[in-house]
Amino acid sequence: MNLTQKSIKYTCSSGNLLIDFKNLQSRLNFTSLSSSNFLQTLTVNNGSRPISNPLNNFLPETQNPQNIVSLICSALKNKNNGHLVLLQKTIEDHGLISYLSNTEISRVLLRCQSDSSTALSFFNWVKTDLGVKPNTQNYCLVIHILTWSKNFSQAMKILSELVDLKRDGLVSVDVFESLLSASGVCNWDPVVFDMLIKAFLKVNMVKDGFRAFRKTVKHGMYPSVITINCLLNGLSKLNYSKKCWEVYAEMERIGVHPNSCTFNILTLVLCKDEDANKVNDFLEKMEEEGFQPDIVTYNTLVSSYCRKERLKDAVYLYQIMYIRGVLPDLFTYTSLINGFCRKGNVRDAHHLFLRMADRGLKPDLILYNTLICGYCKEGMMQEARFLLHDMIGEGMYPDKFTCSVLVQGYQKQDNLVSAVNLVTELQRFRFVVSHDIYNYLIAALCMENRPFAAKALLDRVSDNGYEPDNMVYRELIESFCRWNYLDEALCLKAEMVSKDLKPDIGTYRAIIKSLCKVSRSMEANSLMREMTDFDVPPDIEVCRALVNGHCRENNFCEAQSLLSFFAQEFGIFDTVCYNAIVKLLSAECDIAKLLKFQDRMRKVGFAPNQLTCKYVIDGLQKAVRVQKINTPVQ
């Protein structure tokens, strides 16, 4: 290759790539290398057999390992896959696969430089049919061959495959350096390094893409503006603003002219940095370069100003757009309307909405949701409802967000009835309402202590395929229990079990506590046994509810039995329950029974505390008074 002292431009399907050959010649001294010298530096795969053996010359030509490269090249020249199939059988029958090292693969590829399709066929045959794993150097050679022949799509496919191996940690070498090294022994096109940057970005290896960019520039090759824009976009998404400006500075230094896409990406970077002065300065520089801000530029700035609640600046830009002949689009109006709604200025947001409609722009679901959300936040539910009807009239289906915002808006006004009516209306019009909305409504009604309304809603929506989960049943059962509607709660629990839904500890706790509260402690016992059968261990609240319930019903034996059961089976040693029984026994003035109970509980693991001693002393004093009263005077 003859090198000149000038910078010339390569053009390919992926863009333009500039090469500074003066710089490149000082870094790539590959003209003195020959294919044979290069191949001497290649290492043979571990485990492959040495080929150079004088005894191999006595073997038939098709069985001689030293002829494997010639045999493969001969089969490839026939342009017939049948020859490769026969060759594969020969190689496998005579055990020659172990002699096909990465060095031999590279030698075959170098002989196929002038025919990229043959090189690609061979490469795929080695990988797929023979099951031989090419090394990085093999990959780089076939990539160079394909790129040189302008077969960029196949070259990008193989390059992406190599990058995937790098990402997954299956190769540890530097892909850029490997491509650079391989360029010394075969025909190559500098655009391959431009493609490498894109390949890294394609799999979100942005840092590797940035390093490849810096190395490409360092070696005198200049990526295309399209590739640089892709790199800037990737860096921007990761908030690497400093690296974005490094790339832009390199663009200016090496003479790659930015386009409008470049400026739009950098405008977004500045908006993320929240530096308004820099944005203005950059826009002035952009205009000096001959680029007028387009719709993307204005939308980026308007969206940024609205997010920062700088609505005056956003509206000013909106007006400038008309003056400069850049008509605002749906994104512009959505950003402004969202900005107004966030500030609570829903009236102006709606005026802007109407102006957009007058211009012939059709609002989308996002814009409708934005305005409906604004109305709901301000408590303007009637306007929100009208907008919902308008949206439906335009043929748009309200989504989960729409329903959720409206339901929450009604709830803030303590008007859940309207929320339920809204959902019923949507159902009547065959709109699909998310199950999350039903869950939310049922839970909200339960929180307002309206369990019957919640149950009625559940029955109505169940006809449409809605299946309540454990949490919904729990909310309903707890709400019924708070108002002592125990029969309804027990029916719901039975319904859960019939649907193979396992009640949790909260569900059981609510029913057990309510049963004990209304002196139905024996029923609560049965529920506790069912709970343990379902492998739901009781907690301390269940223990207290049951023991205290039996104590209130003066059922000492059952209370004592439960206290021992909870301690021995579940490790629940609750002194509150223990003291409740002590207090009960003290009130009966049966000191012998009290002392016997204490002795039994001490063996289980209970220890008396200060309150226990007080109850015992009170019991002793009361027993003494009773004895004095019952003792006749002598």
Automatic annotation (TrEMBL):
**Gene3D superfamilies hit by this protein:** Tetratricopeptide repeat domain (1.25.40.10)
Record keywords: Zinc included?
no
Q: Which PROSITE patterns match?
A: PPR (PS51375)
Is Glycoprotein one of the keywords? Answer: no
Question: What domain of life is recorded for the organism?
Answer: Eukaryota
**One of this protein's Pfam families, by short name?**
PPR_2
Tell me the keywords, alphabetical order.
Answer: Repeat
Please report the residue spans annotated as repeat (PPR): 189-223, 224-258, 259-293, 294-328, 329-363, 364-398, 434-468, 469-503, 504-538, 574-608
- Family of the protein in this entry: Belongs to the PPR family. P subfamily.
The name of this protein is Pentatricopeptide repeat-containing protein
